[in-house]
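To fix ideas, we close by showing one paired sequence and structure record:
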Amino acid sequence: MLLSGGLDSYTAAAIARDQGFDLYALTVRYGQLHARELVAARHVSDALGVRDRLELSVDLAAVGGSALTGGTPVPKDRELDKGEIPPTYVPARNTVLLSLALAWAEVLGSQDIFIGVNALDYSGYPDCRPEFVQAFERLAALATKAGVEGQPLCVHTPLIDWSKAEIIRRGVALGVDYGLTHSCYDPAPDGRPCSRCDSCRLRARGFEEAGLPDPVFT
C-alpha cells in the first residue's frame, strides 16, 4: 500500500484491510518541502495495524519542476476543476512511487498494490488516470520476474472514480480517524493547514458535501 498520510491513501488502505488483505505500508520521502505528511503516514500505519512499514527516500526535488518540491510557490485560492495540470504536479511521481512499490511487492511475493489515486474530483494530474494505471500493470508484467513467470500484478485503485465526499463517507463507515491525516500542500511551521491550497480546499469541499465535520479542525 502506497501510504502518504493523506485522506485518500488512508481510505484506500482501510478498504484493502476490509477486503481481507494484509497491509504492508510504503511511504516515500520524495523531496516534499514539509515532513508533516510523513509523520501522518506513521500515525496512519499504526492505526491500520500494518504487518510492516517501509520508508524510502528518492530526491525528486533535485529534478525540480514542482511547487511541492520547491520549484515554484504553492498556488493559493486557485480556480478548481479546470482540468489543467497544476504547478503542484510532481514530474513522474506516481511512476516512481509505483515502481518502488512494485519492487517491494515482488520481494514480498505480493501480486497486489493499492494506491489512493482519484481521477474524478480533481483530474489535473496525468498519473492519476485509469489509463496510466492500466499501462503500469502492463509494464509490470513485462519488467519483473514474477510477471514473466505468469504472476501478474494488480494495481488496485478503489477510489479512482469516487468524489471526495464519497471517499470520506466510505472511510467513516470503515471507522478511519481522519484526524490523523494531513492534506495541506503548504502547512504552517506548526503543521496547521493553510486552508487555501488546492488540497485543503478539495478536502473542505468533500467534508462539506459529505455533511461531516473535518476532525482536523474540531
